[in-house]
Amino acid sequence: VRRTSATSPASRAAHPRWSFLQEMAASGPVALAPAFRLTHTAVSSFKGSADNDPSYIMGLASPAAAAAAVAVAGSERELKLYDRATLQCTRTVAAPAHADRVNEVSFAPPRSAAAGLLFSASSDGAVRAWDCGGGGGGGAAPSLELRGGREEVWSVSVSDGPLVAAGTQAALLLWDVRRADTPAARLEVHTEAVSAVRFQPGSASALVSGSVDGLICSIDCRQTNDDDAVTGVINEGRPVSSLGFFGPEPASHLHVLSSLETLSVWDLQQQAGTCLARHDALRREVDMLGEEEAAAGAGDGIDYLVGCQYCPATQRLYLVAGEHCGTLHLLAVEREGVVALASLRGGGGGAARGHTSDVRCFLWDGGGLLSGGEDARLCSWSPDTDAAAGSDATPLASTSRKSAKPPAARAGGAPARGGSGAPRRANPY
Questions:
Q1: Residues 210, 256: contact at Cβ < 8 Å?
Q2: How far, in Å, CA of 192 to CA of 409, rounded?
């Protein structure tokens, strides 16, 4: 297994906050990832032909790790609920949900004032909240509609309180759901599009925002003035495509993906933030193939990064990456580098096969993994402890990306997907 370099020993010694990842490493080597078996594949029931012009799956959301239902956003602006076990569509929440593409979906946490509602952020300038508990045929009105202008909304996050945050083309907007007619604050803390926002788990007011300008801001949402609200700034140096908190409570560590397919890990316990690890050469430099597969030309490594997922049970951070052919790779982010764990490849033909194109999003609860892609497919992968029974995953060692992001995030040197191989269908946006 090839590991990518994180930081030098001298550099690590200079970072006293490296202790969390040291503790992760001290808990022992990364265990062999269980083989994964493709249990279900469903072609999403959005508009269009799944074979000729499939609807992209833009995002997935679940109200809890073990929830039976999962919300699916398609490129045709529809929101639907699917049964996670069978991948059957159980309800159309809204069709269409917005007048333009849906960029991100997220459920409010249980302690939020909007608990149970599904929030959707759209390029039509609106954030809408939907009640997914009842029946419906796709014509239901949203429970809430939050607007702060006509700017495209790229990301949405809901706090453990009454606040909702959205990253737009020009600003960071905050609403109080109890008084949702107008934004509670408009913070212009970035110079370019705000591509990602996340509330700290368990917090009603602590927020981080990432932008195409390469900056990550720590925000105190109790303040409505730009200067007072910003409590810290990190210069990532690359356009931020996604970010998220991880680690034991109160989850003071941050994983950041850039549009250049890089990963960095930060400690936010200090005001300026401390970079614990930076992985700038993951694409096509982490060898995901065994000797036999490499000789057979089974693939050529990593083409893009999908996202990160933290597992509280093992206290480890995992990375999901992919190839343009549809193969998924699971990796563990360790103190000294990134370790390849397993590759997920679909088998069979017709509707039974796995992904055939880029994967945009995934949900992983530490057990089964659900993935959605540009081929309109939802794939459910379950751990297969009996590798001899036949597996769609290759163990390799002793675990919403690609929602549409601001054009500037893709322009600053970000490689175009599908540059090698078969011609690719144009994006729907």
A1: yes
A2: 9
Q: Which helix (H) or strand (E) holds 261?
A: none
Q: What is the pLDDT of residues 16-35, one digit of tens each?
A: 333 445 554 455 544 444 56
3-class SS of residue 407: helix
> What's the whole-model pTM score?
0.82
Angle at 92 between CA 87 and CA 93, to 5 degrees: 120
Judge whether 376 and 56 are in contact, CB under 8 Å. Answer: yes
DSSP letter for 116, please: T
How far, in Å, are 162, 167, 213, 294 from residue 187 at the CA level?
A: 18, 10, 15, 50
> What secondary structure does DSSP assign to 21-72, as a single string?
HHHHHHT-SPPPPPEEEEEEEEE--SSS-TTTSPPPEEEEE-SSTT-SEEEE
Residue 179 per-residue DSSP state = B
What's the pLDDT tens digit per position in 96-146?
999 999 999 999 999 999 999 999 999 999 999 999 876 555 557 999 999
Per the CB < 8 A criterion, the answer to whether 50 and 376 are in contact is yes
Residue 294 has pLDDT above 90, yes or no: no
How many whole angstroms separate alpha carbon 206 and alpha carbon 159? 8
**C-beta separation of 294 from 288 below 8 A:** no
Count CB neighbours of 388 within 10 A. 7
Q: Please say if the pLDDT value at position 371 is more than 50.
A: yes
Cα–Cα distances in angstroms (integers) from residue 147 to residues 157, 207, 221, 225, in the given order: 15, 19, 18, 19
What is the longest distance spanned by two Cα atoms in the chain? 62
Strands (E), 132-205: 144-147, 153-158, 163-168, 172-176, 185-187, 194-199
Residues 158 and 372: their CA atoms lie apart, in Å, by 23
* Rounded CA separation 160/204 (Å): 5
CB 226 within 8 A of CB 234: no
Query: Is 408 a residue whose pLDDT tops 90?
Result: no
